[in-house]
Every structure is written in C-alpha cells, then in structure tokens.
Amino acid sequence: MCRHVGYLGPPVSLAELLLEPEHSLLEQTWAPDDMRQGGTVNVDGFGVGWYREGRPEPHRYRSLLPMWTDTSFASMAADVRSGAVLAAVRSATVGMPVVVTACAPFSDDQWLFSHNGRVDGWPDSLAAAASRLDVVDLMTLDAPTDSAVLWALLRRSLRKGRDPAEAVRELLGEVLAESPTSRLNFLLTDGEVLVATTWWHSLWVRGEAGSVTVSSEPFGGTGGWEQIPDRRLVVADTSNVTVTTLPDA
Length: 249
Ligand code: GLN
Description:
Its EC number is 3.5.1.118. There is one protein chain. Helix 6 (146-159) packs across helix 7 (164-178). The two termini are 21 Å apart. The longest helix has 15 residues, at 164-178. The protein has helices spanning 14-19, 25-30, 71-77, 127-130, 135-139, 146-159, 164-178, and strands spanning 3-13, 46-52, 55-63, 81-89, 106-108, 111-118, 183-189, 194-198, 204-208, 211-215, 225-227, 232-236, 241-245. The chain has a 7-stranded antiparallel β-sheet with strand order 3-2-4-1-10-9-11. A hairpin with a 2-residue loop joins strand 9 (204-208) and strand 10 (211-215). It contains 7 helices and 13 strands. The protein has a single domain (3-245), classed as 4-Layer Sandwich (Glutamine Phosphoribosylpyrophosphate, subunit 1, domain 1). By secondary structure, the protein is an alpha+beta fold. Bound molecules: glutamine. The site of glutamine has 16 residues, from strand 6 and helix 6.
C-alpha cells in the first residue's frame, strides 16, 4: 500500500524531510518495511503538497515517475522550504489506473488529503455514498479510483464547513458500513492541523519541540516515534497530539 507523511513545524527543505533521512519516504518507495499484504514497492507515482508562509493554499507537485527517478523533483526539493507538508508515494491497487491524477495528495482550497489502503468491493461498494455527489463533484473527480471518490466525499463535507476530524470520522463510518474489510488510513491537513486514521495500516507519530510528524513508517532514526495502534483517530498540531479510539465497524 502507499506510504504517506505529514509534517508541521519549523520550515525544512523537502529534501531534508523526504529524501535525506534514513528510511525516508524516498527509501520507502523501493524498500518499505510494513506493507501488510498491499504490494511490495511504491512506484506508481508520488505527490508532495506544501504550504508557504502567509498563503493558505498549498502548492502541489505530482509525478507518475517513481520518486527515485524524478531528478527534477530531487533538484527542486533542496530549494523548497516549508513548515507544513503532506507527501505520498503510490502503489496502485489492482484494477485501478496508473495515472498522475490518482497520486495523493488530493487538493482543494487549503486542504491536502491522502489515502493509504483500498475500498474492498470497489466500485460497487462506494456506489451508495457516491450517489450523493452532485454533477460538479463527479466532473471534478481526480481519477477513477477509490481514493479519488473518498476525497470527493470528504471535500464535500469540508466545503460545508464540517470540522475536519468529524468529517474524517464520518467518512470512515460511511465506507465501513458498506465495505467493512476496507483498509482506510487517511491523512488530511490544512497546514495547521493533521488529521489521520489507522484502519488496517501502520502509522507512527513523532512530536518534538514545536513540530509534529505523522508517517506510515518511522524515518530519520527510531528515536521519538510512537506507533499508533489500529483503529485510531489522530489529531495533531505543533503543540498537541490527540489519539482516540474509533468504534468498531
Ligand atoms: N487504493 C488507492 C490507489 O490505488 C491507494 C493505494 C494504496 O494505498 N496502495 O490509489
């Protein structure tokens, strides 16, 4: 399954965060440690979203190349600094297309979103939920994948002003009601707060003075990382990390 990372804290370069550390997201592209029956490598493209000081909307770079072969990104990553980043490397679920628009993070206004996992029974299992999307939602679907539909549903709630943690929790419940064996590790940010779930995939959090990192796998050494148990909702900013248990599906 895909791997994702969210970071909030003092500005760092994208290279310092994603490429240079021991077992970085870059290394997790070809040598992830904990894929849990979801593929072996994450080479079906990648994406990075980052925020700039004083601007609520993030920038985004997505590529269909495996992260390690994208030399344009590598040269840019050393020069781009940000205090809020969400990045993901993709391993396409069987039956879903390998297209750049299927690579997280998905984006809308100030939001960035990633899904690590799969919706079992796709696409039928999402038909009931998707029937509530309107024409504009469907026309602006990023890609014909489970994750893109999940994003369209979440984006709809966020546009209505729903609290992000509540919107994520509702989405999880809605999907599990139709497809209880789904794997649903979500990661959402607006550059101020990170909201994440664990539902059948790994997640780790490292809170340090003034920064917080949420990642599918620990990187940059094992010190300071806390493993999040399965079936949890994580809400984190640079001063607090709250972990709550999610109800059974
Ligand atoms: N199902 C999603 C996709 O195909 C996510 C894949 C994953 O987590 N490996 O894009």
